[in-house]
Write a sequence for this structure.
């Protein structure tokens, strides 16, 4: 199961911990559904266009930085960091991935 989700707006140099939502209470050995999350990051002081997130499971395993670490011919099992465009709604952006 997912223990936490980390979000970064500086390419992974620093991370903010997201708040887990629906799905966070799944049994660790039987967690086959999505775990929703939210994260508030103040981006007013910096020029942010992209953000990245990664999940960490209960055993401390983290998603790999990119697909090169898990590459295979069929492209299966690629669960690397997810990069997304930042959508600014106001000074405090609560919807970082678009």
């Amino acid at each position: 199961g997912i223990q936490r989700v980390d979000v970064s707006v500086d390419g992974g140099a620093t991370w903010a911990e997201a708040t887990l939502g629906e799905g966070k209470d799944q049994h660790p050995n039987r967690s086959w559904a999505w775990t929703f999350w939210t994260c508030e990051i103040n981006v007013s002081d910096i020029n942010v266009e992209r953000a990245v997130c990664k999940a960490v499971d209960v055993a401390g395993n983290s998603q790999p930085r990119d697909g090169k670490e898990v590459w295979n011919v069929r492209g299966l099992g690629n669960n690397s960091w997810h990069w997304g465009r930042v959508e600014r709604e106001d000074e405090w952006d609560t919807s970082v991935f678009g």
